[in-house]
């Protein structure tokens, strides 16, 4: 009798699990997922008659990120907008730019197997305002709006496990670099020949995205782009790698750390590195799911 009861219980649990799985499988999958997030980080330090010295500093950094994800049948279209601007004011030195970024990524995929897609990638990035090298005297203008600006696009193959893990391989990627005449009137810069304002490249592009939970309330996001040009400096690889660590305090307050590395001989002969740390407000101003 006991064995019969155990068998009936097992059959009940198995059938119930199957029916639950079937219900989940029949749930409609979202066609559009939209998520807009705003993050603001503020830092301030003040000194008055401080024996060991110090400089009064006020700094603020604002980031607006927008994600648009579309899925229907075999079509997968992901678009991400990354935008940020930051300023600091140091006593006796004035304002300094700490962050300046506008980047738009779009990736269209047509599913061929479970995780593989035929893809087309497009990327545009630039900055909003003028940037200066303050180590020079007088300060030296090194960038401004749309100078430089990069437009990259091309077909490829996408491997996508989820919205948080994907890798795109584009072996025939076109890349346009735009600059103002000011930066090339004396000598070429950003890979653009002297006296010109546009450079064209054709090369291999590898881009990847991976986001996961390190532990409870700690999220790590990795964004990678690698590019090598077939037409110039063959074998030389440009690298853009960014890591974001987010520590959740509550729904609207998070601690944020960013480590950003760029290797690009056309813009600088040295490795570029940017680090940001702060505690600030996070707000999702647009969240929408459409079936």
Task: Specify the number of helices.
Answer: 1
| Low-pLDDT segments | 4-15, 17-24
Give the domain tally: 1
Give the integer mean of the pLDDT values.
85
CATH class: Mainly Beta
Element-by-element helix/strand order: HEEEEEEEEEEEEEE
Stated plainly, the CATH topology is called Outer membrane phospholipase (ompla), Chain C
The share of residues in extended strands comes to over 45%
Using only C-alpha atoms, the radius of gyration works out to: 24 Å
Bin the helical content: under 10%
CATH architecture: Beta Barrel
Class by alpha and beta content: mainly beta
Q: How many DSSP E strands?
A: 14
Give a quick account of the main beta sheet: strands, pairing sense, barrel closure: 12 strands, antiparallel, barrel
Distance between the termini: 49 Å
Q: List the strand order in the largest sheet.
A: 1-2-3-4-5-8-9-10-11-12-13-14
What can you see in these coordinates?
Keywords: Signal. With 291 residues, the protein is mainly β. The relative contact order is 0.13. A hairpin with a 6-residue loop joins strand 6 (131-133) and strand 7. The protein has one helix at 2-26, and strands spanning 32-45, 57-72, 75-90, 94-111, 116-126, 131-133, 140-143, 149-162, 165-178, 198-215, 218-229, 237-248, 253-263, 272-290. 9% of the residues lie in helices and 63% in strands. The chain has one helix and 14 strands, in the order H-E-E-E-E-E-E-E-E-E-E-E-E-E-E. Residues 4-15 and 17-24 have low confidence and may be disordered. A twelve-stranded antiparallel beta barrel has the order 1-2-3-4-5-8-9-10-11-12-13-14. Strands 6-7 form a two-stranded antiparallel ribbon.
């Amino acid at each position: 009798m006991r064995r019969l009861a155990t068998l009936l219980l097992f059959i009940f649990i198995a059938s119930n699990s199957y029916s639950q799985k079937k219900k989940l499988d029949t749930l409609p999958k979202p066609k559009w997922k939209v998520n807009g997030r705003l993050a603001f980080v503020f830092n301030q330090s003040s000194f008055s008659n401080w024996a060991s010295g110090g400089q009064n500093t006020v700094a603020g950094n604002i980031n607006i990120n927008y994600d648009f994800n579309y899925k229907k049948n075999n079509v997968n279209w992901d678009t991400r907008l990354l935008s940020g601007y930051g300023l600091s004011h140091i006593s006796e030195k004035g304002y300094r730019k700490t962050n300046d970024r506008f980047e738009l990524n779009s990736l269209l995929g047509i599913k061929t197997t479970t995780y593989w897609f035929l893809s087309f990638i497009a990327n545009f990035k630039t900055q909003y305002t003028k940037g200066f090298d303050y180590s020079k005297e007088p300060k030296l203008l090194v960038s401004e709006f749309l100078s430089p600006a990069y437009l990259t696009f091309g077909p490829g193959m996408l491997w996508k496990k989820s919205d948080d893990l994907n890798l795109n391989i584009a072996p025939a990627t076109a890349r346009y670099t735009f600059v103002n005449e000011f930066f090339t009137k004396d000598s070429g810069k950003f890979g653009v020949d002297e006296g010109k304002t546009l450079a064209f490249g054709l090369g291999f592009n590898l881009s990847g995205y991976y986001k996961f939970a390190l532990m409870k309330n700690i999220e790590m996001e990795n964004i990678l782009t690698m590019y090598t040009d077939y037409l110039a400096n063959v074998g030389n690889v440009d690298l853009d790698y960014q890591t974001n660590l987010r520590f959740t305090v509550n729904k609207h307050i998070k601690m944020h750390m960013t480590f950003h590395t760029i290797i690009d001989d056309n813009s600088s002969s040295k490795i570029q590195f940017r680090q940001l740390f702060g505690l600030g407000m996070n707000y999702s101003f647009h969240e929408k799911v459409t079936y």
